[in-house]
Every structure is written in C-alpha cells, then in structure tokens.
C-alpha cells in the first residue's frame, strides 16, 4: 500500500498549544491517543486541489449532522484529505475526527455504504481498524476446517430406565445436577449426576427443551450438555446480564446494559447467536443508557422475533436477521404485545390514542392480516395471556368508571373457532391473579380484597359446547399465587412472601383439597416437567435465613428436605415436547390401569426391599464376619507346626491351660447423709 500522510492528532496539537501558552495548570499529562475518535472515509472522488474545498464542504455537511467534528482551525474544518503531490490530486480518501467515540461509531454505522453518486460508494471504518484492513492479503485464503467434535447424545437423560427427572441446585460456590429419586432405598451418591465448584458466576439457565445448561461468566456465556455435561458452546459478549433461548433452541440471545443507569457507551446491547454453530447472526446496539434492555419475543417456530419501538412493532425474520419485508408493523401508541404459543400471529394492546379508542388487535405474520380487533372504552389497564396451546386468549380489562370505582372483566378470545368469537366475563371484585390450566379448558382466578382472597375455577366448555362456566369458588383463602401442574388436573394455591409459604394442594378434577402444609419463608415454587413433583425453596437472593428446598409429590407429601446455607437456585430440567398426539395421550390415560400394573409391581418390590433393608444389612455383616473367622481358623491350623518349633514346646492345646478368674474390689469414696427425721 502507498504511504499515507496521517493528520496530526488534535489532542497532540492542543497539548503543544497549552505548553506554548503556559496553561498547563490542572493538566495531568494523560492524553487519549487511541485514535478511536477518528474515522477513514474511502472511495471518495479523486479531485484536483481547486475542488478540495468543495468536496470537504460536502463531507462536512454530511458528517456534522451525525456528530461534533473537531475543528483544527484550518480550511479543512476538521477533515484531512491527503494529496498525491506527484499527480497533483487527492488520493480518494479522507480522515475525520469527532469529539467522542460514540459519534465516530455512529458515523461508521450510518455512512458505510453511503452512495455519493453511482461511481462513488463510501467505505467507512474506524482508524484503529485501518491497519487490519491494509494488512489483509490480496488473495483469499480459506481457513483450515475445524476438526468435528463428538458431543454424544445431548438427550441422554431421557433414556433413564426409571424415567426420573433432573434438577440443578446452586449454593455458596457449588453447583450440582441431581436425579430426583425419592425411593427409600435410593443412595445420595447414585443421585449425583454432575458437580462443580465455581461453575457459574451468577446462576444457571436450562434451554427450553433441557438440551443445554447455560453458565454466566464475565466474558460471556457457555453451554454444557451430554451425559457428562461437556462444553457445547461459547458465546463471547462482555458482562452478559440476561439470555433468552428461542422456543426450539435454534438461537440464543445475550443481553447487556450499563452498570449504572445513564451511562452512555457504544456497545452491542443484544446479540443473536446460532446455538449449534456458535455463529454471531446479528448484533443490536443501544445507546439509551437504560438500566434494562427490552428483550425480543420469539414466535413458536423460531421463524420470527420482534420488539416494540415507537408506534410500531419490528418483526425480524430469522432467515436473514432483517426486518420482515423491510418495514415495521405500524401500531401507533402500542403498549404491549405477545406471540401466540402455536401460531404465527401476535396480539397487541393499544391504549386510547388521539381520537381512537383503546383496542386489542390480533395480527397474522407474515401476511400482516388483521385477524381480530376489539375496541375498549374507559380503560385503565390491560393484561393479555395466551393459553399454552394457543386455543384461547384472555384479555384482563380494568375499567375506570369514576375516581373511586373500577370494574374488571375478562375478554375471552376463542382463537380456533370461526371468526374468533369473544365472550365477556364480568368480575365484581378486584382481580389479583389469572392462570390457564396447561392441558385443558379451565382457568383459575384470584379475586377479592387481600390478604384473604377468593379462588374461583371456570371452564371454557359446558357439556362440550363453548361457554364460559363457573365451577367452584373457594372463599377467603391465604393465597396470592397460582401454580398449575404442567399436566393439568392439579394446582398449588400458594401464599408467598408476606403469607409465609402457605401451600394448598388442590385437585381440580375432584374440586377438593388434597393436602395443606407450609414452607416457612418460601420464596419460589417450581413444578417438575411431568407434574409428579413440585419444589418449594428459600433463596438467599431474597431471604438470608432458612435457606434450602423441599420436594413434594403432587399430593402434598414431603419427599426430600434439604437445608443449605447460601442456597441460591433450584431449577428442574425441562423435557422436550411429547411426540405423542393428543389422541394417543388420551388413549394411554384411558388404559392407565393396564399400563400402570407393571410399575405398581416395581414399586411394591422396591418398598419390600426398603422395609427389609436393615435385616439384609445385618445378614451381610454376619456373612462377612463368618468368612473372616473361617479364614482365621484356617491360618491358625496352617501355622501351628511353625509356632511350636519357635516356642520349643506344645502351647496350642487348650487342655494344657487352666482358666483362673480373679475379682478385685476397691472402695473409692463413702458418704453418709441424714435426709430427714420422723
């Protein structure tokens, strides 16, 4: 490459000026010589000296709109354009210095690829990247292909012959992955799958299907998987504070933001990665200085991901990581949106905007077709919640009738029915909680005045026909959270936080309480993916005392109790979606007594073995003792001849000995005390 005459850095000139003027008071002598504020603009027109000022004026007009250009006091207005003295014309590139790194980075992002005219398309980079570009070889050299590494079966845990589930716990600096095995004869050593000290700096997170477990580190995150939890991926993103997997585990998004609100620094706030290859698919920048970053929301099939911006929803295609059809979904005033769990459509809430009433609209992607719209009046708040299988959409509406009067209603969208009919359920009291039954048509509602709320159950079907129907109400219960079993049928009505961990294990099929108990100071509750067990725990993140966890079965019977100081986290390992159809699952449930006979027999044998375990343990000790005694007697006989030769006499026979027993008594102390008289 040709020799380039670089401009004198403005800070260096300023230092000389300060020295000449003897104005060094308060100057610490530390200069920023990193050149991160300088950019290089290439592919400029090659012009004679007479036209340089005009070209500089064009560049200054363009780049001064992006940021503050440092004026060096020359005619160049802070823009340096080298001349080829031999040819008497410019060299086709220029250097521009900004007052800060942020403006320089924006200039690169916004003008790289800018078309001045058909023959001149800008190629812009930071000055600090120039050496790397110049040193790039003229001929492309393909990198050496990486040796394939065998990760093994990443879903090995699903082949467990006992169909057990796994969970991860974190306490102090330790992390452990364990089997959930409440069998009486289960040994602690057999339950441990993997253990590691300082495995993560902040916490763990399972992928949606349980294939990977993520650990957080200062330089980024790592994924682990397989039977021995070997490294399965590394994603470099400094100071990651949050991650989100796409529903099918195709992608993972890492997020970060400034440690202190208001700090403005140029960095990638969100990066989308390919989980299998580790490829960085796209980075998103954020210079707002916000304490948190709004995460993307994914469609159920990983084809699309979206986020809200001013008056619009930006939907990106995961194929090319670009905005779908190069235009956003215009939704003026949009406040919230959420994807359907099973269809490529989303619901969006738009509050009252100008002369338009508030509304909830359901839009199809990618056709942009409006499937349903519902106008709402006198709205103070709206909350949307999809049924896990996408059959229904519940919109909880709070209406402000007057300053002291608020009414509540549920707008129930039947998404699978023709024209998406809507039913309205009026609730006379304040609604504090709502939750769908994961596999079914029922939902649970918390309403009333705290601390003791009413718990109501409803169904979306009445005798097989679509109609919202009330089933039962439990009055004045100490509950503020609803936790449905993933399999449906059972629910835990919990009184968390200020209600001290009151637990009500409830059967919705029989509409009766199975068991009532409590876990004092309980902060979190987690169902296992099969609905067989549920865990309550006290995390040191929220409560410094009584840390530990308890595993219950679905009927509220304690299975495992573990107390640990500095206990932070408990997470069940998710399972991938079942390969069985709904019809096949119903058939299995119908013939459950036939299938369960085998497992009931195994349970009976296990219980029998556990009940007789202490007897078998004694018998084993007796057997080992007898074997040792026989060996000792055999050796005694074998060594008899040698022993007699050494001693020179016969000393082995018992009849040569006379057993004499002697008893000695000694008085240590004697006291006499009168305790009373008649």
Can you describe what's shown?
The chain is of the alpha+beta class and about 675 residues long. About 15% of the residues lie in helices and about 35% in strands. It is built from nine helices and 45 strands. The strands form twelve sheets. Strands 20, 21, 22, 23 and 24 form a five-stranded antiparallel beta sheet that branches. A four-stranded antiparallel beta sheet has the order 2-5-1-8, with helices on one face. Strands 11-10-9-45 form a four-stranded antiparallel beta sheet. Strand 34 and strand 35 (about 455-460) form a beta hairpin. The radius of gyration is 37 Å and the shape is extended. Mean pLDDT is about 85; it is low at about 1-25.
Note the topology:
Layout: H1 10-20, E1 38-42, H2 52-63, E2 79-80, E3 83-84, E4 89-90, E5 93-97, H3 101-111, E6 115-117, E7 120-121, E8 123-126, H4 130-134, E9 166-171, E10 174-179, H5 188-191, E11 192-197, E12 204-206, E13 213-217, E14 220-225, E15 230-236, E16 242-245, E17 251-255, E18 268-274, E19 280-285, E20 297-298, E21 304-309, E22 312-317, E23 322-323, E24 329-330, E25 336-339, E26 345-350, E27 358-364, E28 370-376, E29 379-386, E30 392-400, E31 406-414, E32 422-427, E33 431-436, E34 442-447, E35 453-462, E36 465-477, E37 481-484, E38 490-495, E39 502-507, E40 512-518, E41 524-527, E42 533-538, E43 548-553, E44 558-563, E45 567-572, H6 582-590, H7 592-611, H8 613-638, H9 640-647
């Amino acid at each position: 490459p040709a020799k380039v005459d670089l401009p004198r850095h403005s800070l260096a000139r300023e230092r000389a000026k300060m020295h000449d003027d003897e104005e060094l008071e308060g100057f610490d002598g530390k200069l920023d010589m990193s050149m991160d504020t300088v950019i290089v603009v290439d592919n400029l027109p090659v012009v004679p000296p007479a036209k340089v000022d005009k070209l500089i004026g064009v560049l200054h007009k363009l780049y001064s709109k992006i940021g503050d250009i440092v004026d060096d006091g020359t005619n160049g207005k802070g823009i340096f354009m080298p001349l080829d003295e031999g040819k008497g014309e410019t060299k086709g590139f220029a250097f521009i210095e900004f007052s800060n790194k942020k403006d320089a980075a924006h200039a690169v992002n916004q003008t790289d690829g800018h078309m001045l005219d058909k023959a001149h398309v800008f190629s812009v980079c930071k000055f600090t990247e120039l050496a790397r570009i110049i040193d790039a070889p003229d001929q492309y050299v393909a990198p050496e292909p990486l040796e394939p590494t065998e990760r093994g079966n990443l879903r090995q845990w699903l082949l467990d012959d006992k169909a057990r589930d796994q969970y991860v716990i974190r306490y102090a600096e330790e992390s452990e992955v364990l089997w959930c095995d409440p069998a009486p004869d289960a040994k602690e050593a057999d339950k441990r799958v993997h253990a590691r000290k300082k495995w993560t700096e902040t916490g763990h997170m399972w992928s949606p299907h349980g294939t990977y477990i993520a650990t957080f580190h200062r330089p980024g995150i790592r994924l682990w998987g397989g039977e021995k939890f070997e490294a399965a991926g590394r994603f470099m993103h400094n100071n990651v504070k949050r991650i989100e997997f796409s529903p099918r585990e195709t992608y993972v998004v890492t997020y970060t933001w400034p440690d202190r609100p208001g700090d403005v620094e140029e960095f990638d706030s969100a990066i989308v990665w390919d989980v299998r290859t580790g490829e960085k698919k796209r980075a998103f920048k954020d210079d707002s200085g916000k304490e948190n970053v709004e995460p993307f929301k994914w469609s159920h099939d990983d084809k699309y991901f979206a986020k809200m911006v001013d008056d619009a929803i930006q939907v990106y295609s995961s194929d090319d990581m670009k905005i779908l059809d190069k235009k956003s979904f215009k939704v003026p005033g949009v406040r919230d949106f959420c994807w359907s769990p099973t269809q490529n459509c989303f619901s969006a809430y738009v509050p009252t905007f100008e002369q338009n009433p508030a509304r909830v609209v359901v839009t199809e992607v990618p056709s942009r077709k409006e499937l349903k719209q519902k106008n709402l009046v006198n709205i103070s708040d709206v909350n949307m919640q999809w049924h896990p299988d996408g059959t229904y959409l519940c919109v909880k509406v709070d209406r402000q009738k007057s300053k002291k009067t608020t009414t509540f209603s549920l707008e129930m969208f039947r998404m699978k029915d023709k024209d998406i009919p809507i039913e309205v359920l009026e609730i006379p009291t304040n609604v504090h909680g709502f939750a769908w039954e994961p596999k079914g048509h029922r939902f649970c509602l918390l309403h009333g005045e705290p601390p003791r709320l009413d718990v109501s159950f409803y169904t979306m079907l009445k005798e097989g026909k679509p109609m919202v129907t009330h089933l039962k109400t439990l009055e004045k219960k100490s509950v503020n959270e609803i936790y449905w079993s993933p399999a449906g049928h059972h629910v835990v009505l919990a009184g968390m936080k200020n209600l001290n961990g009151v637990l009500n294990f409830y059967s919705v099929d029989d509409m009766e309480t199975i068991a009532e108990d409590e876990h004092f100071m309980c902060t979190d509750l987690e169902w296992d993916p099969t609905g067989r067990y549920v865990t309550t725990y006290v995390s040191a993140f929220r409560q410094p005392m009584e840390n530990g966890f308890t595993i219950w079965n679905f009927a509220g019977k304690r299975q495992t109790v573990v107390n640990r100081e500095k206990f932070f986290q408990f997470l069940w390992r998710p399972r991938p979606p079942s390969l069985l159809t709904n019809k096949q699952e119903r058939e299995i449930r119908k013939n459950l007594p036939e299938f369960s006979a085998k497992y009931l027999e195994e349970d009976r044998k296990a219980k029998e073995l556990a009940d007789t375990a202490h007897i078998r343990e004694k018998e084993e000790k007796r057997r080992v003792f007898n074997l040792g005694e026989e060996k000792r007697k055999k050796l005694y006989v074998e060594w008899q001849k040698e022993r007699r030769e050494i001693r020179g006499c016969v000393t082995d026979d018992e009849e040569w000995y006379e057993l004499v027993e002697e008893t000695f008594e000694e008085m240590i102390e004697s006291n006499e005390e009168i305790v009373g008289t008649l």
